[in-house]
Give the backbone structure.
Amino acid sequence: QVHLVESGGGSVQTGGSLRLSCEASGPTRNRLCIAWFRQAPGKEREGVAALYTDGGSTIYAPPVMGRATISQDKAKNTVYLEINDLKPEDTAMYSCAAGSRACTPAPEYYNYWGQGTQVTVSS
């Protein structure tokens, strides 16, 4: 079982930046994908980005493409999501997830989920 803990959320002004962290613990496996999702109240969960931990390949969803960077520190078992030029529409609860079926930010492919960290962007 993979346990995931997110951190790094907070309140920022439009145009600011945040770096979120997703630390994995417990028995991990090779060929694991880590993805970030977000969900605002009353809206469906949407994918943000995904990273293949073995090779480091990445994929980004259109709303954050060009503004977000997903990366990893393998020694720390941590995946990061940095978003620059934050916009009010980025406001959401951000969660990370782990899986091995696919490495795209679609929730049905992930088995393990963190509890989330809140990001609030104000004008």
